[in-house]
Task: structure prediction
Amino acid sequence: MDSSTILGIIAAFGLMILAILTGGKLHFFINPQAMMIVAGGTIGATLVHYPFKDVFNAVNVAQKTFFHKEISPNEIIEQLVGFSSKARKEGLLSLQSVIKEVNDPFFVKGLQMAADGQEPEILKELLFREIEYIEDRHEKGSEIFMSLGAYAPAIGMVGTLIGLVQMLQTMDDPSTIGPAMAVALLTTLYGAVTANVLFIPMSGKLKTRSQSEVLCKSLIVEGMNSILNGENPRIMEQRLHAFLAPKERESVFDKSKKKNK
Result:
């Protein structure tokens, strides 16, 4: 589970609730009518904008903001260097025996293609094409949540207008002014909070997750291509380190030297 997402949501809502409680009662800010207007209007507008299938897929993609195990690029590079050394010593067919050590289906696919003796150019083309499709799916999910972030405040303003109309129509009855004004103000509040605390940050988190995943998969493609070309593991490591910032680079060979001392 992604601790930063959970902590961020808890901090945002927790501090807002604390501020509410220090100045009044929490139930003053709970209004089912306002909730229905914002939730129904936002979901409805999104379904008008996007096909149901895309919206459903976006919900599945959104799980990455809560449940995501970060994979270190250096771990991938270390694995690739080890596989490269094995392939140079025992041949490409030996990669078949290490497939069970890998959990990533994309990595498994690359290893299987290498073990089968696939041409480097074909392997690179097929895997990069798969990366493009992954980017498209992630981009669509991020776009949908950004749209939710745009629709929620707008629907909140619609709810405000509804509340004001209800209030103006019943000005002769003072007892109805308060509930109507509550709807008018709380719909704007709900729209702003859901957009700026949930939908827009989730869209940004999905973009970050996508960039991280694409980086790791690009490392795999370049590494497998180097293995098929019989490249020296040290040269391959230097090539893969080009994907990382200098301060993030960890050499497998430097680690082994330290262990041997």
Q: What stands out?
A: The mean pLDDT is 87.
